[in-house]
Amino acid sequence: MTDLTQTTPSPALRWWNLSAVLGRVGLHLVIFLGILAAWEAAGRFGLFNDYLVPRPSRIATAIGRLYVTQGAIYWHFFVTLFEAVAGFLVAAAVGIGLAVASALNESFRRYVAPYAIVLNVTPALALTPIVIAWFGFGWSSKIALGAIIAFFPIFVNTLTGLMETDADRHEMFRSLGAKNRQLFWKLRLPAALPMIFAGLKIGMTSALVGVIVAEFTQATEGVGVLMNRYSFQLDMASAIATLLSMSLMGLLLFTLMEILDDRIVFWRRDARMAAVGKARARRALSWRTKPAAARKD
Amino acid sequence: MNSIAIDRSSAAARPVPARPRVVGGVSAGETVIEARGVTKTFGDGSVVALEGASFEAKKGEFISLVGPSGCGKSTLLRIISGLIPKTGGSLSVHGREVTEPRSDIGMMFQKATLLEWRTAIENVLLPTELQRRVTADDKRRAAELLHMVGLKDFEFAFPRQLSGGMQQRVALARLLQTGADILLLDEPFGALDEFTRERLNVELMRVVAEVGGTTFFVTHNIQEAIFLADRVMVMTPRPGRLAKIVDVPFERPRDLSIQQSPEFNALVSEVRDVLGGH
């Protein structure tokens, strides 16, 4: 049977190499706890104003209040997450759609690209009041601003990826009599996927920024609203707890994109590539004639 | 080689492939390519890339095109492939004038031009996939071709997992998968190291003989050109011109040791004399 384990170099660090991993994690923990302890001590001995720079234990209490005793954050967390994902999806659909159209049609590219660039050089966050005036105080204005901010990196990356197909492979496809449609689906699009995903990753985090800024400006729900409320009340511990929730949200969305990237653009990473190769070898058993006990000499 | 014997036994168990296979190859007699005064100019006609090349090729023949940069050898190959149009003369393959890329003419490039998101066998299947739906028979055929080029255990390896030489073997298998019987090779092993190139050259001769293809092989290495070919088309630059066609009388299959023989060296001198005048 095909055995790729002999041909693929094993990754330098094996995750199951437990002692090495534990050692590294342990060091991280020591540093992190050390910083927290120093901060805590400084707060208790009055080196900081404890209202403006709350010490870790007070932030922890605030987190407990937000997530456990009051549970106030869940709805807001969900609203912001939903708005960010929705904004991102709109931006991805429009951005990739326009980029594909621009890549396929030169005059379309000539007449559309300038608007995209004007949109890019305009400080998008400055659009917030206008967007809110247009779309209202509800969710749609947040989704719209998230989409506007996420659009440009997705559009530009997709267009760049689609335009930089290398001439040799293009010629190879032509020599095989490929039609334009095949050239697009089998060469240009897959070759552009790494670039497209880089754009989508930036777009995802940008959408979150757009949504939260819109919430700061005018909203009734979302973590941005919570943040505003706690800051006005000078409840800095809760404000920081909310900020940490935003980081968590960003991390969540980014990790999701990383996983998708890893799955779809698998050929960029050795370990994933080896796994995909093995999976395809297994699936191929249906048509493959097994070499009759033949071993290479 | 053992792997070839296995190929044949597995081939017996399945339907015969649709395309013709002539084993042995050399000079079956029938003329498959006829070129008369093939010319390529650029711009208003003042830049001449190739000037009036006339030649014929018989079925199963191996022809090398040798010459320095700018002699028009790659241009000529691309005209035969239908990738670029000629500006004068006539060129017919299998009795039909070449005007665009065709399924009976296949091309292989200096770069392997593999798709890195496809496994070796998926890369080999690309030509079929562009023409029609891929069947289980096509897949078995592709696996057989990979065996033939010495990549028996690498069907599901991705290009990045393969060395440069192995990538070119995949490209060769892909060329054979097209079913074309006119094989055009543009310095296919030019980017590889000397040792790998010599070994691949020997295997190339074996493989094309096995499928009975008529082969055009572009190179700028005189020894390589003579070692591989039944005939060497010597080309000179400014303007690109087919200066001379040299017959190579050595029997096939050939061994690398013929390169030490006086006859071989006489051929090298003959080619070098033609090129030396420029």
UniProtKB/TrEMBL annotation, chain A:
Domain of life from the UniProt record: Bacteria
UniProt protein name: ABC transporter permease
Originating species: Antarcticirhabdus aurantiaca
Automatic annotation (TrEMBL), chain B:
Keywords (A to Z) from UniProt: ATP-binding, Nucleotide-binding
UniProt name for this protein: ABC transporter ATP-binding protein
Organism for this UniProt entry: Antarcticirhabdus aurantiaca
